[in-house]
Structure formats: structure tokens, C-alpha cells
Amino acid sequence: MVAPVTEAGMGVWLSNVCPILEKNHKVTLLTSDNPGVKISCSKILKLDSKKFPNPLYCYMPKLKELINTDFFNDFDILHLHGFSTYATDQILKNRKKIKIPIILSVHGNLQKQEKSFLRIIHDVFALKNKNSVDQLISVSNAEKNQLIETGFSKEKINVAYNGVNPKIVERKPDGRTILYFGRLAPTKNIDLLIKAFSLCVTKNLSLVIAGRDYGELNSLKKLTKKLSLENKVSFLGEVTENQKTKLFSEVTIFVHPSLLDIFALTLLEAASAGIPCIAFDVGGNREIFNNPQTGILVNTTNETALAQSIDSLISNVKLCDEISKNGIISISEKFTWEKTAESVESVYSKYN
């Protein structure tokens, strides 16, 4: 497997799936010299890297040498992780030198979003090598459809849902706290959640925003101040697992305001812990929840509709309890890392 800096969803995938694949395969991971998460596999090779022009792209000067010396041809399958990365660019560009099948897990790297000029130019040229991929693995049917729209062959795309490690949480919700947990990034639309929170009519609500900042924190704090919500909105930053467990036990509902995610791991984690969740009816969210049995999906993608859904759910204790119980069972059964690994192995088996 080849992966750059393994943070966020990509890192979670590798750390959970690699140990399962190890039961039937010898897995070698080629990654950057600072992968960011602990991953267990047969062998890990770390290449000197530079976070240029951004951390995910991850320039690896010695990668070309490995390609030219037939390093990859000693393996049975080459599994790439992430599309818009230096490793994927170089390997697909030099496809003729690599004789083994190439499988690509995109991990949402090609989702529709506002892109920088540099990224737009990159994707135009990189997609010229899309036919160099033998098989693709998408994390949802929503991503599969996006890949087809991008020009990848439908016959090459396989869906393997991400899994979740359910948290055992003794829930004692306080009846008034809304939680957002995840990256503070533009694609997460946390500003929309704050605006929706300002429109809620239910009294004495509080909003907790937890997660690592990816450049949005200052603007979100300014928006909070502009709406006079400083005493009602808390920014916790990145939290430990123990802090997360405490949050999950206390909050009443979880809101995921992104309009672009093709499959949100944080939704799986929250719902499997018994937190009633609200998300927009977009992307992979409708593949996670049955509305309203296991989660609430909001049809209209604006702050007014989101505020109305928050008011409606947080005031309905009976529905919250039903969603909580259903979510624990449904999410934990449907989305497991073992099932993810089985789906990946079925793709590998095409080349046995």
C-alpha cells in the first residue's frame, strides 16, 4: 500500500483495515516519514517527504528511484490511497514500468468542493492518467457516482463502506447541548451550523464545537461574536479519547452540517455511541441513516431548515431515545471494519 501523510479518514482506514488484512496477506505500507497515526502491518517503509505544496500532497524525492528500480514489481498488488497526492501522480504517470495491478482508494479526494487554482490545474492533468488504474474503491455509492461523473469507468468501481469502532458510552444527556465533532475545515460548513444555532427558538441551548483547526477557527469565532453567541458556543479544539467519551455521554444531539462529505466517519462514531444525529440529506449521509429511525436527514440545505430540525428533535425526548437505541444497533451492525476488509479482499481476489 502507498499512502501519504495518514491523517483524518485515510489514517483511520489504514489503522483499522491493515491489521485485518494482515491475517491473510503480507501488507507493506510505503508512507511519509511522519505518517501521523500508528499503523500495524508486516512492514512499514518511510520515505523522506516534504509537505509541499500542502500536507496531503506530500512530495517524496526518492519515490522515482523506487519506480525506476522495479521495487513495486516484487509485490502482487499495489494499493494507492488518495488521488491528489504526489505518490499517486508519479505511479500512474509511470504505469508502464509497473507490471502489477493498481488499485486506488480515493478517500473523497475528488469530491465536489471549492478548489484552489493550483488544485484545479493539478486535477486536469492528473485525470489524464485515470485509465492507468485497474480498480477503484469508493467509500460510498455517492462517491462512486462522483467518480463516474469524473470519467472513471463504472465497471472498475467497487464500494467498500468505512467501518466504526463503537464507543461504549453510558449516556446521561443534559437535554440542551448540541455537539459538532470533526475537522474545522471549510467543507464542513460549521458556519452554517452556527447560523442555524442562532435561529433556534428552544431556550437554554448550548453548542459545543470540538476538533482540530484546519484554518477555520478564527472566522468561526468572529461569526460567533457577530451573532452574540460567545456565552453559548464553546470551542474545545482537538480532544483526547477520554474527553470525547465524556462529551458523547453528556450531549443531547450531534449535528453534522457538511454539504459535501461523501461518507462521514464522525456520524458513524456518534450514532453508534447512541447520540441522535442530524445531517443534511446529501452525499453518503442517506446511505448511513434511515430517516427518522436511525437519524434525521434535512432535505433543505440552509440554516433555517437545520434550525427547525434541531428544535424539533431536541424537544422530542421520545424520538431521541428511539433514534439512540436504533442507531446503536443499526450502525454497529452495518458498518464494521471487518466488512470493509472483506470488500477490499474481494477486489484483491480478482487478481489471484
Sum up the structure in keywords.
single chain, 352 residues, alpha/beta, 6-stranded parallel β-sheet, 4-stranded parallel β-sheet
Could you explain how this protein is built, in words?
The protein contains 13 helices and twelve strands. It has helices at 8-21, 63-68, 86-93, 117-126, 141-150, 190-199, 217-226, 241-250, 265-272, 285-288, 303-314, 317-334, 337-348, and strands at 28-32, 43-47, 78-81, 102-105, 135-138, 157-159, 177-181, 206-210, 233-237, 253-256, 277-280, 296-298. The model has no long low-confidence stretch (mean pLDDT 91). The protein has 352 residues and is α/β, with parallel strands linked by helices. It is 38% helix and 14% strand. It has a six-stranded parallel sheet, with helices on both faces.
Structural class: alpha/beta
| Termini separation | 17 Å
SSE run: HEEHEHEHEHEEHEHEHEHEHEHHH
What's the story with the biggest beta sheet?
Answer: 6 strands, parallel
The tally of beta strands, per DSSP, is 12
In helices, the fraction of residues equals 25-40%
Tell me the fraction of residues in β-strands, as a range. Answer: 5-15%
Strand order of the largest sheet: 9-8-7-10-11-12
* Radius of gyration, CA atoms, in whole angstroms: 21 Å
Give average pLDDT, whole number: 91
What is the tally of helical segments?
13
Q: List unreliable stretches of 5+ residues.
A: none
- The geometry reads as globular
Give the oligomeric state of the chains in this entry, treating copies of one chain as homo and distinct chains as hetero: single chain
